[in-house]
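Can't paste images in this forum, so I'm doing it all in text. The chain is below; anyone willing to post the predicted structure tokens underneath?
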Amino acid sequence: MQYFQINKNEAGQRFDKYLKKLLSQAPGSFIYKMLRKKNITLNGKKADGAEKLNAGDEVKMFLGADTFEKFVSPLWKSPDQRATEKQASEKYPYIPLDIVYEDEDIVIINKPSGMLSQKAEPGDLSANEYIIGYLLKTQALLPEELATFRPSVCNRLDRNTSGLLIAGKSLKGLQEMSRQLNDRSLKKYYRCLVKGRISKPETFEGWLTKNEADNQVKICRREEPFGKFIKTGYRPVSWYTPAESEKTKKVMLRQLQPLQSCPGMEIYTLLEVHLITGRAHQIRAHLASLGHPLVGDRKYGDQQINRWFAQNFQIHDQMLHAWRMILEDGRELTAPLGQDFQTVLSGKEERSAERKS
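Text version of the structure:
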């Protein structure tokens, strides 16, 4: 007989889904047959698989040792615990993460620009793998628990967008954060640097369509077939002219760049953006459609501006940061702006919009 007790990370899921993860090498027909014949029981009783699991529930399997070894998840196969830990650490490496918030059910990190939120290709390493690596390192998660529950990120940020990224440590945390994101009771605010002077808060609506061939979206003011409704709010934080900085002037003169008629003499606005709906590339494409592309945005931005900032500030990614979120219960979390923002904004600002508002 094999005995298992449901832990808090596994609670909340259907019994059959739990069994399909634990006996990952078995066909579904085998699992349901074992349930019908009471070879697999829940709390000592016959089950059909639709039951919702609670922490402390007892699962018993009356399977032969050879059958269990044949069908159990690979994470349960090794009798040597050290081998299991080594296997898990290779798949989920540990790197230092900027932890903004953590409790029993969720962990929120400040994701750096350049890191994937989730895998794009099978061989990728993403924030998802690094978060699992962190949980294994701190023993908030045991390697064998990965057989029946795998922590996962709840929201997604583009590879070159930095900031707050939520992951569910338990199924309860994953489901709760996903619910708050879906019903928009969790409020998300970004900061970005855009071309042009924006003088007052605005809220804009539109419809977004996506071209799958080039992974690019288009924003329309009127409803279009297959378009998705979007709503974006923003307010200016400060205005900035990079070439006003003495340091930047010296660089430009040394490179024989004229101070007139160059991107460095334009006014840029540091915005706080409220992402009211959450669509792929929504902030980047929406602001570009309004004539205010993000600095460093290679897909929707102004390429002349991008080249100037790359040359003078080594900015190669869009200046977009998931800066603040307010959870449904009122808790507010912020993630400091990254080094790219600090480098660019260390020059002279024209004036702060916050002081005027």
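The mean pLDDT is 88. The radius of gyration is 25 Å.
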